[in-house]
Design goal:
By secondary structure, this protein is an alpha/beta fold. 38% of the residues lie in helices and 13% in strands. The chain has 15 helices and 11 strands. Helix 2 packs antiparallel against helix 3, helix 9 crosses helix 11 and helix 9 packs across helix 12.
């Protein structure tokens, strides 16, 4: 973990360059995992040497020498930004994302751009134009998605931490599958400037780390208002409750989970009781509407956001002169899952179905947020599984709706805009990691991370 390495960097017992070189060697050794789309070997080593000079001079910054992977939908000037798609295969941005600027100013260095489901659409990382990412414990299994490359990079010792995007669980779900920490903040606490949009009202930049301490260190640096992001919160209030109570879902709401997940959930409740918390069984109304609400909103916004990729201004342009250039460029550039979601989003926004679907989904969204507000009036956090299963075999799920259901326990936090974190909590009978999720009230990010650190095993 970076928190341990930093002590050794400062004491001169280890160098940032040697540590970064070790990460680069690990990336090369484990190339079969396909965790990265591009690796910044030269730039990372050069920056690492500069970090060592700062340590020698006693001028180290808060994250000096922390090596970070970026999901390939976050802008890093002069480095490819593919979004895991053919349509952006050769695109290079001309500016840095706000989070990149803040991390670099704090002394962090970037080791590469991590593989991902195309345009962050997927739950298994099987949808990348650059090939699937493989699970570090079992090459036949998926690492989760869409930020699977980031999760694998952190879990397999290729970097200290990583930044991904979480639209409906795309950081927490792969964090659970790979046995690392994945934290999604309150909507608006971290700037989205420089993140390629999928569903703007749901998208958030989120953090992977091997421990909660490292995640908190990154969060403290990148959080805060950004005038370049209109959804960024100005002077966000810090919410903190002191009920010493944790909300637990009834058995009926986790009945579809694997036995290993249920056992881990029971152990999490017991862990809270041992720490002096009262566990309170709560019902979350409208749970059956979480998935349909999320996918109506997400696909509607995706159909609008992805309209900019037309083959005219940037990205792939078709040479097929037999049909309309824009149609040909999009047909060739987008993969099946992206096309599916664009078509669904266009349908729910069409004049004949807008009220029946999109408007209803927005109304349901408000009901979900209100239900969470009422629940947090009596508890500090709500605990639930991150995923219904552990990592599944690649190719095992071919039904799109069945795949979407793997996000059952994660999408609600994005719908309501509340913070949520997945922490490793044991393993199943095959040795595959299990993740448990804690959700907090809006703007209770710091307290949520404190509690997550407390209950982590």
């Amino acid at each position: 973990m970076y928190s341990n390495d930093r002590v050794q960097f400062a004491a001169g017992e280890k160098t940032v360059l040697d540590t970064t070189s070790g990460f680069l060697s690990r990336i090369a050794e484990r190339k079969e995992l396909n965790a990265f789309i591009s690796v910044l070997d030269g730039a990372a080593r050069e920056h690492a040497s500069e970090c060592d000079d700062r340590y020698k001079a006693g001028l180290q910054r808060p994250l000096e020498g922390m090596t970070i992977a970026l999901k390939d939908n976050i802008s890093l000037k002069g480095t490819s930004l593919t979004c895991g798609s053919h349509i952006l295969e050769n695109f290079e941005p001309v500016f840095d994302a706000t989070v990149v600027e803040r991390l670099r100013d704090a002394g962090a260095l970037f080791i590469g751009k991590a593989n991902m489901d195309e345009f962050a659409m997927g739950s298994s990382n099987e949808n990348s134009y650059f090939g699937p990412v493989k699970h570090p414990n079992d090459l036949a299994r998926v690492p989760g998605g869409s930020s699977g490359g980031c999760a694998v990079a952190v879990a397999d010792g290729m970097c200290h931490a990583a930044l991904g995007s979480d639209t409906g669980g795309s950081v927490r779900q792969p964090a659970a599958f790979c046995g690392v920490v994945g934290f999604k903040p309150t909507y608006g606490r971290i700037s989205r400037y420089g993140l390629v949009a999928f569903a703007s009202s749901l998208d958030q930049i989120a953090i992977f780390g091997r421990g909660v301490v490292d995640v908190r260190s990154v969060y403290d640096v990148i959080k805060g208002h950004d005038p370049f992001d209109s959804t960024s919160v100005v002077d966000a209030p810090s919410h903190r409750s002191s009920t010493k109570r944790v909300g637990i879902l009834p058995e009926s709401l986790i009945s579809g989970c694997d036995a290993s997940i249920k056992n881990a959930y029971a152990k999490l409740a017991q862990r809270f009781r041992e720490l002096g918390y009262e566990t309170v069984e709560i019902e979350l109304p409208h749970m059956d509407a979480w998935i349909p609400t999320y996918f109506i909103l997400a696909t509607a916004e995706a159909s609008s956001n992805l309209a900019r990729f037309d083959g005219v201004r940037y990205g792939h342009r078709s040479s097929n002169s037999d049909i309309d250039m824009t149609t040909a460029s999009r047909s060739e550039g987008f993969g099946p899952e992206v096309k599916r979601r664009i078509m669904l989003g266009t349908y729910v926004l069409s004049s004949g179905y807008y009220d029946a679907y999109y408007r209803k989904a927005q109304q349901t969204r408000r009901m979900v947020a209100d239900a969470y507000s009422q629940a947090f009036a009596g508890v500090d956090v709500i605990a639930m599984p991150t995923t219904p299963t552990t990592a599944f075999v690649r190719g095992a799920i071919t039904d799109p709706v069945q795949m979407w259901l793997s996000d059952l326990y994660t999408v609600s936090a994005n719908i309501a805009g509340i913070p949520a974190v997945s922490i490793p909590f044991g393993a199943d009978e095959h040795g595959l990691p299990i993740g448990m999720q804690l959700q907090g009230a809006m703007f209770a990010d710091e307290q949520l991370l404190e509690i997550a650190d407390l209950v982590s095993i």
